[in-house]
Amino acid sequence: MPNTDDTARYRVGSVWRALQIVSTVAQGSAQGSTLSELAHACGLSKSATHSLVRTLVDAGYLRAIEPGPRYTLGIVLVHLGDVAARQFPLTEMAAPILRKLSEETRLTIRLAIADDGYPVFVERIDALDAVRFHAPLGVRELPHTSAAGKAILATLTDAEVRRIAEECGLPRRTAKSICDVPTLLHDLAMTRRRGYAIDDEEDVDGVFCVAAPFFDHRGRCGGALSATGVKVGVPTWRLQELGDVVRLGAEQLTKVLGGTLPAEWEHAR
């Protein structure tokens, strides 16, 4: 969640802490989070956490699972997610492009928005014969292991990338994950030259992803389009081919949004 001096002045503490708890549960285990885990993650006492959690459970934003209890997201958020998706115009405007990419590549196609340098996926389309991946929507993901994250990072300055790297810590997800800033900056420079990013089993073993950024009317990165598939039997030339297809899709979305490609991305091939 954003945390600046200007926003902090108007923040209602109890509401902020409740939203922190909901966000923590959303990013936690599918089996739910315990009260102790939530208190530790949010930096709250167990008594304060208990009061907030019980309120969220009563309102339907969280659900208590016994024995434990462990807490998962509540049914109210399912409804709100549907409403938010309908009200978010980007997904509607991008839908034809996502469907076309899915049909052309026969891969899982996802749409991510940029959240202060991090990817947050807001839509996905699975090809009919594609392997289905566990890819939840609405969750802020690591920026350095996914192709979408690296595509977004590649639109930032080196100083901004260093800040985000320090903030997230560049944790290792697989043996191929990039976990140091110099290597990451080199990878991002290659991304700019190609016009698309590659996740070569850096987030999940056996899974690859290619992604390209799209831009708004100010030339700022709005997010990225990505294609995900199983790495087995996919040669380098095919990754390059898929990267170009996704790049063209991202450029098309930029045009649909009335966006402008920055100079360094106009000639990326």
Kindly state the percentage of residues in helix: 40-55%
- Strand pairing plus helix content: what structural class? alpha+beta
Spatial sequence of strands, sheet with the most strands: 4-3-7-6-5
Strand residue percentage: 15-25%
Major sheet attributes? 5 strands, antiparallel
What does this entry look like structurally?
The strands form two sheets. A five-stranded antiparallel beta sheet has the order 4-3-7-6-5, with helices on both faces. Strands 1-2 form a two-stranded antiparallel sheet. A hairpin with a 5-residue loop joins strand 6 and strand 7 (221-230). It is built from eleven helices and seven strands. It is globular and about 55 Å long. It has helices spanning 5-9, 13-27, 35-42, 46-58, 75-87, 89-105, 147-153, 158-168, 181-194, 236-256, 263-266; strands at 62-65, 70-73, 108-115, 118-125, 197-200, 207-215, 221-230. Helix 6 (89-105) runs antiparallel to helix 10 (236-256). 48% of the residues lie in helices and 17% in strands. It is of the alpha+beta class.
Note the topology.
Elements lengths: L4 H5 L3 H15 L7 H8 L3 H13 L3 E4 L4 E4 L1 H13 L1 H17 L2 E8 L2 E8 L21 H7 L4 H11 L12 H14 L2 E4 L6 E9 L5 E10 L5 H21 L6 H4 L3
Antiparallel strand pairs: 1-2, 3-4, 3-7, 5-6, 6-7
Helix pairs in contact: 2-3, 2-4, 3-4, 6-10
